[in-house]
Specification:
Blueprint: H1 3-20, H2 22-29, E1 65-66, E2 83-88, H3 93-109, E3 112-117, H4 122-131, E4 136-140, H5 145-151, E5 160-163, E6 174-178, H6 202-217, E7 224-226
Parallel strand pairs: 1-7, 2-3, 2-4, 4-5, 5-6, 6-7
Length: 228
């Protein structure tokens, strides 16, 4: 192997190893952010899902896809002060639209939002988000899909929501909210033939954020929330 390639591979391996060891480090050091270091009760949703979000009496199977009725998530809200780490990478128009939607939702819902731009260091950015120990890590940007696939299975106590994309094989703590025009899956699968950057409208992105968060808050995790 060329020395430069060997050094790059070594740096990546070291970063992944550090992320895998993160829970032990946090247990010793405590939360990295003083404002979030105080005791914090597990979040409970405010309100309930309307009929049509999931089939009555059913629990979606892991890695399955549900297509909720439009607006069936609207009655569910996060508790005030819900702690969300917005993890973003890239500056494409779809990514910017998703970030704007998350910030608008956070203002409306009085969410405590912290933003981590991981554009220059994808794995390092994920590590920073994990170190905050938020209620939810919310990911916006296709570049984050493959790094998240590497990390999320080793942090099952942390909830993740991916909007506008999805992981090919999500674990129980990774939920996705997307639609036909936003179907990037990573792992070499790339974008589907239905991908359409113009579909990332403010309304569609806002629905994805709200529907995805509603799924997480109500315990419907590890699935894809498909908006059609």
């Amino acid at each position: 192997m060329h020395p430069r390639a060997r050094n790059a591979a070594t740096r990546v391996a070291a970063t992944v190893a550090a992320l895998l060891a993160l829970p032990a480090v946090l247990a010793l050091a405590g939360c990295a952010d003083d404002d979030w270091s105080s005791p914090h009760a597990a979040p409970t949703p405010v309100g309930v899902l309307a009929a049509g979000f999931v089939a009555p009496g059913s629990t979606p199977a892991p890695e399955s896809t549900i297509t909720p009725a439009p607006g069936s998530w609207s009655g569910v809200h996060p508790p005030r002060g819900y702690r969300v780490a917005l993890l973003t990478a890239g500056s494409t128009a779809p990514t910017r639209a998703l970030v704007d939607a998350v910030r608008s939702w956070a203002r409306d819902e009085h969410v405590d939002l912290r933003t981590i731009d991981a554009s220059d260091d994808l794995l390092g950015g994920i590590g920073k988000a994990l170190a905050l120990q938020p209620d939810l890590v919310l990911s916006a940007g296709d570049d984050l899909v493959d790094p998240l696939a590497t990390v999320t299975a080793n942090h099952l106590d942390q909830q993740f929501l991916v909007v506008g994309a999805e992981l090919a094989e999500p674990t129980s703590n990774v939920t996705a909210a997307d639609w036909a025009g936003a179907s990037f899956r990573g792992e070499g699968l790339g974008t589907s033939s239905t991908y359409d950057a113009s579909s990332f409208t403010a309304a569609r992105c806002g629905d994805a954020v709200r529907a995805g968060v509603a799924a997480v808050l109500t315990g419907h995790t590890g699935i894809v929330v498909w908006l059609g």
